[in-house]
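Throughout our pipeline, every protein is held as a single compact record rather than as scattered files. The remainder of this section carries one protein's record, kept here as part of the documentation.

===
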Amino acid sequence: MSLYIYLIFFIFSLAILFGPISYKKDTVSKLNKKEHPLKFLYGSAFLYIDIYRKTFLKGKKSNKQIKRQSRLSSLHVGQNPEALLYFDSAKKISFSILIFTFAMFIGLGYSLSLPENNEVTFIDRPPGNNGSLSEDLIANIEGETSHVTVNVDSKEYTFEEVLNIFDAARESIEISLLGDNNSFEEISSKLNLINNVDDIKTNWSFEDSQYFNYDGSIRYNNIPLEGVRTIVYGTLSFADYSAEITIPIFILPYESEDLSFNQELQSAIDTNNDSHEPTVHLPTSINGYSVSFFKPQNDLSPYFF
């Protein structure tokens, strides 16, 4: 429907622009092209100005036109005030009609670019973990149209389809889990216990929780000098299905002298405290050395100095 509307208005605007283009051709030809770049459209503009003045103004000027003529005369001293007003009106009318024609041309081009038939015969379901969607449509019932809303539930997957999704995402999940480690045979830093990858929810657990903290960092004090082999379990969930993956890893040993004091301190705190308790008890010794802790106080003496 919009195509025909744009087409009608486009043809109409072309007729307005170029229909009476030869009107007052001699007057138009004498105008300076630099001052009047749209003078090739002035023939049409002159005709509409003359019709408007004879039909509605009866040869008189409105107060607005009188003020504009006075302003133009002050800017162009020595020139005919009537001619100044006439040409200024033609310039504005030509520009307005040209903009209107251009807008109709753009609208016509857009309408032509649309598919000839926008009839909808199917709606794609959203993926398994993305819930449902609502689609607003127009229903044509024997020539009468009505706005309707169609609710579409997410796609249901078979177990085989979900297994294929898990297999396809396995590599990305393992790479994300590694974090800054080079491989699962050389675990020396925190594991990245991600919650989801590509719409797949992930939950992690350990064969032996004494080697890791809840955030995936290593409990260095519990790692033997020769290192230790253990297993990380991942539960993958997508749609209504879940599956477990098993990832064998080897945690590299750390000698105590290689650990910074902060690492030693954090390891001692994590090892000797229960995460369910409301308080965290600080150690009194680290590596055989007694240690105590104090809160820093604000030292204002530099300001007084």
User: Anything to note?
Assistant: Residues 81-113 form the longest helix (33 residues). The mean pLDDT is 78. The first strand starts at residue 133 and ends at 141. The helical segments are 2-18, 25-29, 42-57, 63-75, 81-113, 159-178, 261-271, 301-304.
